[in-house]
Design a protein that fits this description.
Number of domains: 1
Structural class: alpha/beta
CATH architecture: 3-Layer(aba) Sandwich
CATH topology: Rossmann fold
Number of strands: 8
Number of helices: 7
Largest sheet: 6 strands, parallel
CATH class: Alpha Beta
Length: about 190
């Protein structure tokens, strides 16, 4: 089993997110020797990528868990460093979705406000992976995701291990009920 799990949060989220908390608690109980990292990502995608890249170099045996936009970042990082990743309701083409959100933004957890720009959209586009290595991934999606179309992720990660749950929502509110499949993937990464 990898010695480090790096949780990559989504757009306007933080390490204080629900899924990060559930995962950190579960790791402490089920894999206490595994280090849990949940960096605060900069709002600028290029800066977030640099931070994640530094962590991947520092922890070369890490496994990634990315949620929403964090799933997109985790894909880029997994392909760049040959890491494995759990993707939770991941964004597939966030530059298309977020183009409509250019302007003033506010972090859900910290309340911090910032300007999201077209330059940020282009920074996201620059992180697109032309191809993926399916065996690196566990895709966890809920069909009721009201923010992202789960079918895009199913198509993008074709050939990867896929765990598709009927219903649910973008927040993956019953995440703790589905941790068994995540821990199976962690054990398989050994």
């Amino acid at each position: 089993m990898p010695t480090t799990l790096i949780y990559v949060h989504g757009f306007n989220s933080s390490p204080a997110s629900f899924k990060a908390g559930v995962l950190q608690t579960a790791l402490a109980q089920r894999a206490p020797a595994m280090k849990f990292l949940a960096p605060v990502l900069p709002h600028a995608p290029a800066a977030a990528a640099r931070l994640l890249d530094e962590l991947a170099v520092k922890y070369p045996d890490a496994i990634l868990a990315g949620s929403s936009l964090g799933g997109y970042y985790a894909t880029w990082l997994a392909e760049r460093h040959a890491l494995r990743a759990v993707l939770i309701n991941p964004a597939v083409r966030p530059y298309e979705l977020l183009e409509g959100h250019v302007g003033r933004q506010k972090n859900f957890h910290t309340g911090e406000e910032y300007e999201f720009t077209l330059a940020h959209v282009e920074e996201l586009r620059a992180l697109e992976c032309a191809a993926i290595t399916p065996q690196r991934y566990l895709l966890m999606v809920e069909t009721g995701d009201e923010v992202l179309d789960y079918r895009q992720a199913v198509a993008r990660y074709q050939g990867a291990r896929q765990y598709i749950i009927e219903g649910g929502d973008h927040g993956f509110g019953d995440f703790e009920k589905h941790l068994g499949v995540l821990f199976d993937f962690l054990h398989d990464a050994a």
